[in-house]
Amino acid sequence: MAFIEHVMIKKDTLESRLYQEAILGRAVASDLLCVLPTGLGKTPIAIVLAVFRLQKFPGSKVLVMAPTRPLTEQHLHSFRRVIDLPDEAFVLVTGKMKPESRQEVYKSASIIFATPQTIENDLTEGRINLADFSLLVFDEAHHSIGDYAYPFIAKAYAEQAKNKRILGLTASPGGTKAKIKEIMDNLGIRDVEIRTESDDDVESWVQEKKMEWVYVDLPDDFLGLRDSLKRAYMERLEKLHKVGFRKPVGIISKRDLLMLQQKLMQSPTHDYTKFWGVSLVAQAIKIEHALGLLETQGITSLWNYFRKLSSDKARSSKSVLRDKKVEKAMELAQALEADGRKHPKIGKLSELVSSQLRGKPDSKIIIFANYREMVREIVKSLASVEGAVPGEFMGQKEGMSQLEQKQRIQDFKEGTYNVLVTTSIGEEGIDIPEMELAIFYEPVPSEIRSIQRRGRVGRTKVGRIVILIARRTRDEAYYWTAQKKEGVMKRTLHEMKEESSGARKPKRGQLKIMDF
Asked: Which pick of 213, 229, 366, 394 has the fewest CB atoms within 10 Å?
């Protein structure tokens, strides 16, 4: 094993990998979006680039940003472990730190770690100036869209910096050229580098991932409930044709409904047809969501949603609940909930966890679910599985503080829990111990989230991934949607890499890590 040797890098702390050297060579030369699968070392590229920039521009600073505080702290520990600088050169800046204290550390520290929201606030209030920063690292760069803080910071940096260099890091920037270009434009980046797990210079570093697809069938009483909701849903789609929505009813998606809703809302007319159409779309969206919960989540999630609708004062909610077909669905859901009926995926999930722990009692397992309610239901169900000690892991918006998140991860590392059941917070690069088994309670239609979920296993040893799919439901559609988007994303990124200025295959003699 070869290690990087550099005056600012501690001895034998950072491996040397050819594909990282090639990517780094381009990051040295230009602002770069680096797309690399989870677990293949985006952070080491950022670390060595930081060292190079600090050495090239003495007295300059580096700013490393990530969407969450736990991830930001993780970067701090990684940089401090490798870079040979005094402890006070590294500082974690958070919104809990007093504004005047933040202003001082921006001046005194060499490498600053922060969430983008904190930096955006301090730029707005004039507490930080980016003139002396020779490198900005945007981790999870796919967030650089809309009103997120990253684009604002990148624009300010372009205006203030004396020696500008940007490195964007992500495992999955998005499935279309327009989306990827939006991210790059928002960060002021021209060049892109991508590696996939099948590339020649990466393949030897990739551990095998065993993918399994486990199918279940919805029971008859679930299908009867679904039929009532479907009829109510189709009735509204057919009525929407009367306000000019011409897409065939059978292939209308939730995205189509949201786009129609926006179009109707923006219409300059103020007649009855417009408002009737807006109400119909809102009703259709609500019923479509109920169908999704029934098919992919379970009865408890559906019944809780019906209860929420019952307390909603919106006219569209009241219209939905007055529908006889929806009333029938609610009665069926209430009866099934009272009877303790679960989605068949819950039983299959318990079997998978039990089998894994019987075969390898010291296993660590991660389970992904879309909804907070589902996470809690899974934890409750798995508590009765012999050998399983499940714990939930959720984001702050879902009710878990940063301190609780940190403690839960620590408990998981130490073995207090051996099954971590998480919402999307567990998908991004938080330092969760590597798993022997990852289970997706449901497929997700997002290629970004699908890639990030898979990245939780198979880093240093063979990993197993199981995707639960309910037959003839949107589970199947979501899975194939994500697969298609991921394929398009990879092809698009390779095309953009070839198109971007200076793109070329690494040659002998080109800049490598060892040269810095």
From this structure: 213
- In three state form, how does the secondary structure of 317-332 look? HHHHHHCHHHHHHHHH
Range with lowest mean pLDDT among 16-20, 45-49, 412-416, 500-504: 500-504
Tokens, residue 488: 């398009």
pTM (predicted TM-score): 0.74
Beta-sheet pairing, 390-393 with 365-368: unpaired
Q: Is the pLDDT of residue 385 over 50?
A: yes
In order of their start, the domains of the chain are 18-190+500-515 (3.40.50.300), 209-216+344-489 (3.40.50.300), 220-338 (1.20.1320.20)
Q: What pLDDT, on the 0 to 100 scale, is given for residue 71?
A: 87
In whole angstroms, what is the distance from residue 379 CA to residue 394 CA?
12
CA–CA distance from 32 to each of 24, 169, 189, 240, 451 (Å)? 9, 9, 6, 46, 21
**Residues 415, 420: Cα–Cα separation, whole Å:** 11
How big is the chain by its Cα radius of gyration, in Å?
25
pLDDT at 428 (0 to 100): 66
The number of beta carbons lying within 10 Å of the beta carbon of residue 2 is 10
Does residue 435 surpass a pLDDT of 60? yes
**What CA–CA distance (Å, rounded) separates 119 from 152?**
10
Question: Which of 265, 259, 234, 231 minimizes the C-alpha distance to 248?
Answer: 234
Measure the CA–CA gap between 100 and 369, rounded to whole angstroms: 41
